[in-house]
Amino acid sequence: MSSDTSQLNAPIADQASVDAAIENRFCVRAFLPTPVPREMIQDILRVATRAPSGSNAQPWKVYVLQGDAKAGLSEKVCAAHDALREHTELEARFRPDYDYYPRHWVEPYLARRRQCGWGLYGLLGIAKGDGDRMHAQHQRNYRFFDAPVGMMFTLDRVMGQGSLVDYGMFLQNIMVAARARGLHTCPQAAWNNYAHIVLPHIGASAEEMLVCGLSLGHADTSAKVNTYSTPREPVESFTHWLS
Prior knowledge:
Blueprint: H1 15-23, H2 38-48, E1 61-65, H3 67-86, H4 109-123, H5 131-139, E2 149-156, H6 162-180, E3 184-188, H7 195-202, E4 208-217, H8 235-238
Antiparallel strand pairs: 1-2, 2-4, 3-4
């Protein structure tokens, strides 16, 4: 990063491209097998490190999975996902390291969640109560939606909850930087329940906890699932102006 401060207050020369990278980001759920060069992945991560973090702690740890390493993890977690469906008494073994979702949903968040879920299933023709197809669609998470690159993000357990805020900004940087390079992503909390499988597979230590996974690659533009777009609330609905 340049130390020249003469242009600190100047707007970014190509603001439209910055906005487009943000506004065109969405969760892709079907990828092409097209490889992503290691140099491009490394460059995306380099750019993402400009995310702010409390006391510049930079708490992120990234594991990039490709090839056999990615396929092997998918097989392990898909098998566990199938076993959990058949043996619900195993649920205690499949707990995330932190609560990503609330334990009790309330409005307006419950309605938004239902709109998201049933909007996606409706597009795919999965009827309410069709457990087999729901299970199969959910399991697509654990195959990284066929993306050639999977990422796992961990955090040292000694860190405080504020580091999760830092992590969110780091992850957003990854997704926007990927979009700027013609790639797409899908951040995935679905992996968190299987942390006890993921962490040993990627070689993470016992002092690390799983934050989330992420799929990275080129979107399959022919896939119907990639036409799904979630709505956003207008600025007026969540902003309070004080003067």
